[in-house]
Amino acid sequence: MRRLIVNADDFGLTPGVNRAIAEAHERGIVTSATLMANSGSFDEAVRLAKASADWSIGCHVVLLDGAPLLDPVRLDSLVRRKQNNSFRDGIAGFAVRALTGWIDTDQVQAEVTAQIRKLQAAGIEVSHVDTHKHTHMFPAALAGVLRAARTCGIRAIRNPFEVIAANYVKVQRGMWKRYRQVKTLNGLAGLFRRAVAKAGLSTPDGTLGIVATGHLNPEIFHAIAENMPEGTWEFVCHPGYMDDELGMVRTRLRESREQELAVLTSPQARQALESRGIELISYKQLYS
């Protein structure tokens, strides 16, 4: 049996991202999306999320490259007070702090709880959590995210570790750096699985598409589908339209979001899954 959750990240980021995610669900293969509580187009994303009952909406937790919901004074291990009280930038720095004991798990729990509660207060039935740039792959952050999820009644979490088929990476040279990074971080996968099991949450067997982020095209998607193992997996995607608001956001994913939308809404993508007997499910079906 092979089942696939197709989750669109960054819901709420900009109007163009919101519109593309809704389209990728309505006329494409997206079955779930994760909404950013501290995003500029949050209210619009909430309205779009409620417009359809047949997809799952999770919380896309932000612990870097943005602003917290809580008072920054309470988050000194996460926030750089001298720079507009925003989270520190960049996954590399976060990794160093997480692996050397500088991330306070209690602070993570408090901020993640606030972000989840904001979605729930807006009337969203939060089905799962994941994190911006997969910060929950690090044990210090994961512990806080899991505690927050349990406190808020969340039943599932993204497994951020990708089982990578080298032959699809060869499709495009620009993916090799990302491939090496992801392969190195996969050493944390065992700790992740044990922590999630102990917390009693559900999680897929792993992810697909992280290495391909920013490079997705029909050929790469076909290769990913062709090499998808048995089990339940999550395909991570970032559809969007390049609007003025996205131009002001610090992100490397700009024009590539429209390329992803084209893939996700193409008949060929659905055919690639159906021809291999891959069943599309949402996060709600993961634990139902």
Folded structure, characterized:
- This protein is an alpha/beta fold and 288 residues long.
- It has a single domain, classed as Glycoside hydrolase/deacetylase (TIM Barrel), CATH 3.20.20.
- 42% of the residues lie in helices and 15% in strands.
- Strands 1, 2, 3, 6, 7, 8 and 9 form a 7-stranded parallel β-sheet that branches.
- Strand 7 (207-208), helix 9 (218-226) and strand 8 form a beta-alpha-beta unit.
- Helix 1 runs parallel beside helix 11 and helix 4 (105-121) packs parallel to helix 5.
- The two termini are 17 Å apart.
- The mean pLDDT is 90.
Cα-based radius of gyration, to the nearest Å: 18 Å
- Overall structural class, as computed from helix and strand content, comes to alpha/beta
CATH class: Alpha Beta
Shape: globular
What is the CATH superfamily?
Glycoside hydrolase/deacetylase
CATH architecture: Alpha-Beta Barrel
Sum up the structure in keywords:
288 residues; alpha/beta; TIM Barrel; two-stranded antiparallel ribbon; 13 helices
Quick structural summary:
By secondary structure, this protein is an alpha/beta fold.
Give the arrangement of secondary structure elements.
Blueprint: E1 2-11, H1 15-26, E2 32-35, H2 42-50, E3 56-61, E4 79-80, E5 86-87, H3 91-99, H4 105-121, E6 126-131, H5 139-151, H6 166-169, H7 176-185, H8 189-199, E7 207-208, H9 218-226, E8 231-237, H10 244-247, H11 255-264, H12 267-274, E9 278-281, H13 283-287
Parallel strand pairs: 1-2, 1-8, 1-9, 2-3, 3-6, 7-8
Antiparallel strand pairs: 4-5
